[in-house]
Design goal:
about 110 residues; mainly beta; OB fold (Dihydrolipoamide Acetyltransferase, E2P); five-stranded antiparallel beta sheet; two-stranded antiparallel sheet; 2 helices; about 5% helix
Length: about 110
């Protein structure tokens, strides 16, 4: 269990995926370019490449954790983490807004 104060430190935001490509040498990793509205753009690396192609994700909205420290995965810097559930077969399922909202919208 964590406290509400700990949970409130997470900054969950809606991001629009503007570009996506596979990370060379990985079947699982995708490099995503994101629009976060007034927060600008950023890049994240996500392990969803077995479930989604880059074409599946471009021009869609996803929910990300926007305030994580950068991390390098297979030589590519990631500045955030997308949110996903896993289905009964352990396949990632992206968490997305039900309808479009402005890029950068804060999740409350």
């Amino acid at each position: 269990m964590i406290t509400y104060d700990d949970f409130s430190k997470l900054e969950l935001r809606v991001a629009t995926v503007t570009a996506a490509e596979r990370v060379e040498g990985s079947e699982k990793l995708l490099k995503l370019q994101l629009d976060l509205g007034e927060l600008g753009s950023r890049q994240i690396v996500a392990g969803v490449g077995k479930a989604y192609t880059p074409e599946d994700i471009v021009n869609t909205q996803i929910v990300i954790v926007a305030n994580l420290e950068p991390r390098t995965l297979m030589g590519v810097e990631s500045n955030g983490m997308l949110t996903a559930a896993r289905d009964e077969n352990e396949v990632p399922v992206l968490l997305r807004p039900h309808r479009p909202v402005p890029a950068g919208s804060k999740i409350n």
